[in-house]
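Rotation project, supervised by the postdoc (A.L.). Task for the rotation student: set up a whole-complex structure prediction and record inputs and outputs verbatim in this book. Inputs entered:
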Amino acid sequence: MLAVAALLALCAGCSRSNSVSEGGAPQAALPPNQLIERLPLGDLAGAAPNLAANHIPNPYAGNAAAITAGKALFSQMNCVSCHAYDATGGMGPDLTDSFWRYGGAPAQVYASIFDGRPKGMPAWGKLLTSEEIWKIVAYLQTLGGTVPASFASRALQGDEPHEVNALNSMKGAQSEDYP
Amino acid sequence: MTKRKQAGWTEVVGPRRTLPAALAVLLVLGACSREEEQGPPVRTAAAEQVHAPGGATANLAPNTPAGEWAMQGRDYANTRYSPLDQIDARNVDSLQVAWTFSDGVLHGHEGQPLVVNNTMYLVTPYPDIAYALDLSKPGHPIKWTFKPNPAPVAIGKACCDVVIRGWAYDDGKLIYNLLDDHVVAVDAGTGKELWRTKMDDVENGGTMTMSPLVVNGKVYVGNSGGEMGVEGWLAALDENTGKELWRAYSVGPDSMVRIGDDFHPFYRWMQGKDLGVSTWPKDAWKHGAGAPWGWVTYDPETNTIFYGTSNTGPWNAAQRPGLNLWTSTVFARDADTGMAKWAYAMTPHNEWDYDAVNENILVTLPIDGKLRKVVVQFNRNGFAYTIDRQTGQVLVAAPFGHENWSTGVDLKTGLPRVVKEKETVPPGKWVRDICPADIGVKDWQPAGFSPRTGLFYVPVQNICMDYLGREVSYIAGTPYWGAEMERHVGPGGQFGALIAWDASTGKRVWSIPEKFLVYSGVLVTGSDLVFYGTVDGWFRAADARTGKVLWSKKLGSGIISPPMTYLGPDGRQYVAVIAGVGGGAMVTASQPDFPPRGGTLYVFSVGGEVERPSPTTPTAPVTSGPQSQNPTTTNKGKH
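Outputs recorded:
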């Protein structure tokens, strides 16, 4: 709360634009936050495929206006200070590589921003709207390090797409969660 | 009262090698005042007052027994001078690893071991685990382990790795700061927590990384967070209870800064009421930083503590026109009350992140024919300041490495002459090749002083930056930074050096260039050896008078912690250093041959020999009591 008040006070005169209206309309309805909150952080006991994140795409993915707004937010919210202006990391992790401690699919990145993470990532769910968080995710998706939604559960196992393709062709079968 | 094993050490001299090379060194040293050769000298706890030619000296209070090392700087003056001299120019080339200890943590290791009463005390970087190693038993077993379990949220608030820069032993207690803004005191005999004091809310972005200094029952600690928009503060705690006695802020009105009638800064622009408010735009001081995350030193003659404050927040100076007092400033304060005596801002309206937190070494030097009691600080901004300890007047200010942001310090006004092309305001445009880079010509890694040579031994960085100021908003718990940077090596292409410095004249005496940063502190000994390490893992000993490298050993990781030396229970001299690269040294991590991380203590002796029982000491029994049967007892923190 204190943080919000301080931000509003200090930002009154600075250049934070109303990025929500600038970001364009989403391609689809926003996934409800309750769906995000149910995303498991770990693998599922019983070795069941963890498919929860596979079916939540970013409604702003590829939306140029949203990506521009997300990039602006990435700077205005001081994300750049920990993750660097080019998002290659500093105090916080590199967001352009393929290593994602808490999952690199769009919904998982959303969850990390919304909820925060225990090693210093603050939770932004109270300060930013869902639209704003999805736009930041849309920007990060353009940097090449994220994981396609459909590959979320495989990525948790450390797999890369070409490995799964090879494995599937050897088995002569398609993965249930990766077309 | 401090319970320590009485010194009165009898030096046990091992067989000395007399190689031709060693003889040559001996000839070079012929002119120096060495009284060697006849039998082993007897050491006593009382410090001999040592003077260099010309009268340069230092007060080595509290005169820790020669074989021990109880606080990071070894003495209140922070000389890092040890009188031990068994290891000398003749035998240093036969130094070998005697034993090692891995603490299991792979973050940057910036603190150094302490040795008191035949026990070595180590504290890891986050999670700040303390170990006591029993030096009197074969294999140096763990006497106790203390796990304070600091909050993981602190990891993301620390700007420059989750380091700890040191810990202090006093009166049977090991006292240190946790990254999550608590100070903890542990019983040095048992590893049980005695008290833990919360100093700040880590959620707001502040952390604690510095080494406390403990003097006369008071523990001096300060915060870190110059990149997080904190208000910097230094506090004194009661050593026995952990209760906070006073807190002096670096920004804000005089009441917060503990400025009163006894405050007499030397220069006029620092005189006036509430300058910690009026030298800022409205309310900007509230996130102006000035965190004293470096070192505290103490002058027993005047009961004064000295320390420096960090960079100004945010880095983007366009958001805070004004002198921005009291950031980037050295304070002299009454050790009992915390009231300021004088202050001197080295880099007012700091546009380059040049913190003033580096150690303030207290020495007596001949200057213009008179012996002066001075403070010497090697500032990040590239100038070495020799300052009158009583008045705060700058006597000498000279560049001790490569800098190009200033053409010098005007000794009449105390102000630096700033080079216009290197100013970083207005923001929004790249300013190229500012030297030094943010981490300075020297960072926090402490220099040393030898009262035998009268010289300072200083780790030096040769690093520059391209800088782009950016507008930034304050959001609590996130960085309040406002700059983009690209760093590069300075002229000549060598990142580091160790230099010897004459602070009476402001002149470099010798220099050992290094390909990598020299980001360790130094150790200087009574046999005129200087020990230091490099970021690529070379541990070296050099002749303190000539700068000739006499011995080098490559360790398992980069060295960013100061070496120390002690006498074992066998009367033998050991040199110890931790190899564990990290911290600010990571700004050069893309350099080819940059080493992997580590967390290993290396202990060296002549020939690698260890624990040969002294003829006068009976061999200690291998097992005794419950502690040795349960050497990994841990104590969970209180919360």
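Student's summary: Chain A has a mean pLDDT of 80.
Supervisor addendum: The first helix of chain A runs from residue 2 to 11.
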